[in-house]
Amino acid sequence: MLLSKGRYLMLFVCVQMVVMALMYREGYRKRVVYFLGVFRKGGTPAAVAQGNLTRPGDVYANLSLIVKPSMREEDLPFCPEKSPLISGPFRVTFPPMLTMAEVEQKNPFVRAGGRYKPPDCESTHRTAIIIPHRNREHHLKYLLYFLHPFLQRQQLNYGIYIIHQAGNYTFNRAKLLNVGFKEAMKDEDWGCMFYHDVDLIPEDDRNLYTCDKYPKHASIAMDKFGYKLPYKTYFGGVSALTPEQYMKMNGFPNNYWGWGGEDDDIAIRVALSGMLISRPSVQVGRYKMIKHEHDKGNEENPKRFNMLAKTRRTWKQDGMNTMEYEVLSKEFRPLYTNITVDIGSEKGFHPKT
């Protein structure tokens, strides 16, 4: 009897060992299939199609799957229509004592100027990220920490532009975005422009940073609004337009100095130019805001409501066709292109040169 039980036990152990060996081989096989799959023109790697190899919630997890194949760039296959690296929601927590050097180390395929294109396939999407900026280095560091892997998981050909307002005059977000559009288009024929506040972190990589048929409002659900759209025409935070859509509405207004009003003006321009607003779902378009006080030099604009009432009359005379500015410097930093500009003040534009 004891001998019989011993045989059954031995058989059970042997079966378990065989199962474990097969599981190990299957995991190895999936990795091999993934790397072979990138060579199929436009195909989705089989291993990743069955399930992403991720650590739940880590925005950097899937980047380990990105490898540079031993073939010429012109022979690369097209990236699949849906990136196999996308895995949905991820955690947004802010690592203490983070440095730009650490962000750079975690993104080895990002080139000078904050430029990236997938090393293992040819992307069909070219997206420029335009970020208005002044005295927000702390926020910028964390945005780049999350934004670079977020965009790489979507297999985009992208570039990140920081448009830095020089001087101490009142901040003008919308005019900086106009400058960003014009300067970025000098570098490349971008197919999509994302206008991105520096303090907003996306929380789901299914929120694609590509343009739609109509102007897109991407940050539909921010944590500061309880992950709900505050009102139907809200267009603040993160938005996206093709160059054609942007020029059709004459870009953004130049005369909103200080905080508030320009987003509503932009939404009115969308409607006046015969377009609608496109949005992702509330579940996908989620963003976390980095908490901060109002910046000095970016106080509430007391004229904004009066200006909004005149948008129907002013939008064709205030925008890309009337913008004045001067580029003071352009630097290709490891994680972004920094463009410092003089955009004047409420009293007008008076170049120093």
- Total number of beta strands: 11
CATH architectural name:
Alpha-Beta Complex
Which class of secondary structure composition applies to the elements? alpha/beta
Distance between the termini: 100 Å
Characterize the biggest β-sheet: 8 strands, mixed
Per CATH, the class reads: Alpha Beta
Rg computed from alpha carbons, rounded to a whole number of angstroms:
24 Å
Number of helical segments? 9
Order of helices and strands: HHHEEHEHEEEEEHHEHHEE
Gross morphology = globular
Low-confidence stretches: 18-55
Any idea how many domains?
A: 1
Task: Look up the CATH topology.
Answer: Spore Coat Polysaccharide Biosynthesis Protein SpsA, Chain A
Percent of residues in helices: 25-40%
CATH superfamily: Spore Coat Polysaccharide Biosynthesis Protein SpsA, Chain A
Beta-sheet strand percentage? 5-15%
Mean pLDDT: 86
Function: Responsible for the synthesis of complex-type N-linked oligosaccharides in many glycoproteins as well as the carbohydrate moieties of glycolipids.
Domain Galactosyltransferase C-terminal: 217-293
Domain Galactosyltransferase N-terminal: 79-212
GO molecular function: metal ion binding; N-acetyllactosamine synthase activity
